[in-house]
Amino acid sequence: MSILENLKKEFSEYNTCIINKNGIDSFEIINPFGGENISVNFEDNEWTFFFSYQHTHFDDDLDSLIKCIHDYLDEKLVSIEFFLDGKARFGGQRYLEDINMSSGESLLKDFGYYGSLLEHFKSKNYCCKIRCWNNTLNRDIDFVIK
């Protein structure tokens, strides 16, 4: 049984499929909430996990890949992306227990930007987009640091 077939079996309680995208087989979990699907493919000797704005690379550590997928499905992990004037600039995935979603500035701190590092962000129109599996925590936070 291929690894993609094993993923299909592991996540059999969800609507899944294996599709071919541009010659690359990809495992997908269809999002029933209308949000982004979870996708996993193998290319250049590594597994890549995709959700919303984020992707994560895994070499042969399939246990970590499976845990990552479960953590998104269980609403433990979220995708966060910062935009400047509508263009994606940087982001990552974060565990909900480790972030403060009260403001754009608090999220910047979660990404290591605080104190004098915030100077770079002053007087610019940023938007932080948070995306989760079931859409309940999805939000766009527009902010300008003064």
Protein architecture, described:
This protein is an alpha+beta fold and 146 residues long. The protein has two domains: 71 residues; 67 residues, no CATH class. Helix content is 18%, strand content 39%. It contains three helices and nine strands, in the order H-E-E-E-E-E-H-E-E-H-E-E. The chain has a five-stranded antiparallel beta sheet with strand order 1-2-3-4-5, covered by helices on one side. The chain has a four-stranded antiparallel beta sheet with strand order 7-6-8-9. Strand 6 and strand 7 form a beta hairpin. The longest helix is centred in the middle third of the chain and has 12 residues. The N and C termini lie far apart (56 Å). The mean pLDDT is 91.
Give the tally of structural domains: 2
**What is the count of DSSP helices, taking H or I runs of 4+ residues?**
3
| Structural Rg | 17 Å
Identify the overall geometry: elongated
Largest beta sheet, briefly?
A: 5 strands, antiparallel
Low-confidence stretches: none
What is the number of E strands?
9
Strand content range: 35-45%
Rounded mean pLDDT score:
91
First-to-last CA distance: 56 Å
Strand pairing plus helix content: what structural class? alpha+beta
Q: What oligomeric arrangement do these chains adopt?
A: single chain
Order of helices and strands: HEEEEEHEEHEE
Trace the largest sheet across and list its strands: 1-2-3-4-5
Give the fraction of residues assigned to helices.
10-25%
